[in-house]
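Before surveying the methods themselves, it helps to consider a single example record, giving the amino acid sequence and backbone structure tokens:
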Amino acid sequence: MCRTTETANLVLGRAEAFEDVRGGPIAAPSPERYEPLRRLMSTPLPAGQNLGIASHGNPFYALAGPPYLAEGELALIKPGDAGFEVIARVRVGDWKAVQSVLK
């Protein structure tokens, strides 16, 4: 969890660790395995706020589909009443561009 939290801090300038974005097998014994993460990614945010997810591959892949998040990659999520939409995937080479937009 430290590596993914550090990624979010480096790209977005702040991060909050959530146990719900931790890894684990996709073929989990319960279909509710990643429901807390789905709720997090689907909860509408106040105007002007964005949600970035830096996670190990399986949880994000299980909910958003392929491809897996790469090492150092961050997904920007647009939460909504009907779920969520991945609006961008930010790879290491794109961090500076995102940081300049957020300033």
